[in-house]
Amino acid sequence: MNPSLPGRATPKPPQSNPRTRRLSGRLRAMISDPSSPTAPFARRVRSFVRRAGRLTPAQARALEVLGPGRLLPGAGGRLELDAVFGRTAPRVLEIGFGDGEALVAMARRLPDVDFLGLEVHEPGVGHLLLRLEAEGLTNVRLICHDAAEVIEHRLPVDAFAAINIFFPDPWPKKRHHKRRLVQPPLIGALAQLQVTDGLLHLATDWVPYAEHMAEVLATRPEYRRIEDGEVAAEPLAWRPETKFERRGLKLGHEVRDLFYRKV
Ligand SMILES: C[S@@+](CC[C@H](N)C(=O)[O-])C[C@H]1O[C@@H](n2cnc3c(N)ncnc32)[C@H](O)[C@@H]1O
User: Fold this and answer.
1) N or C: which end of the chain has fewer CB within 10 A?
2) Ligand 1 atom with minimal separation from the 150 CA
3) Which of 33, 114, 169, 205 is catalytic?
4) Domain 25-262 belongs to what topology?
5) Which residue from 46, 51, 115, 121 has its CB within 8 A of the most atoms of ligand 1, so it is best to mutate?
6) How wide is the angle at C-alpha 239 spanned by C-alphas 238 and 245, nearest 5°?
């Protein structure tokens, strides 16, 4: 709507996000609010809704104090990852890391690998920053922003040896299927980011979503499916149990891992 037209109501000024209100302006700019009406791609169907749950004071402090150096801005030009990590190394991208416990376990296990995590839920990012600090892990960087936008604008091509999407929101209702993260355009964009022979590892505890993932990947010539046995010895294919996986298992859900190789 054009507010300058006669008879139209003057739009209300944007309200600040209550979850980031306690952060400094500099940090609020880093953790850009993708639900803001001024955010680019505001009309794209999003794979997430802002979850309830405020930042704890420790998480807010972690974002302020530990964020610089580890937390990269969601907006800007393409990242130069050698400069970001201060070295050249194989790299893993994790999308939607939640509380980041799986990322911590992988980064601890593979110190010669760099990990970049994308997550929109600020408390999860704060939690992970605290864990990285406690463990002294230096091989992890984070971006708190919609992964779809980060993938499109921020990440360089041919950069990742592995891409992990563990237990993305299943959006079980049919009318919500369009919100599922794993869709042909996203997978096509991920293929651009991966090195040849790179690994794409998807996991879900929702069998209909696993079937949807397999259908989507079958439409993408950039990837071929590989059996679990084929990757059993590959360090980058290992993953720990995640928080959402535990939740699914308690509910009696079947967990499926799907592996693909970038051709
Ligand atoms: C069901 S949780 C799984 C978290 C974690 N991987 C685990 O297994 O415990 C899905 C996560 O993906 C995040 N997410 C969903 N869409 C996202 C997007 N477009 N960009 C970044 N994070 C996203 C959500 O905030 C949520 O934390």
Assistant:
1) N
2) 20
3) 169
4) Rossmann fold (3.40.50)
5) 121
6) 150
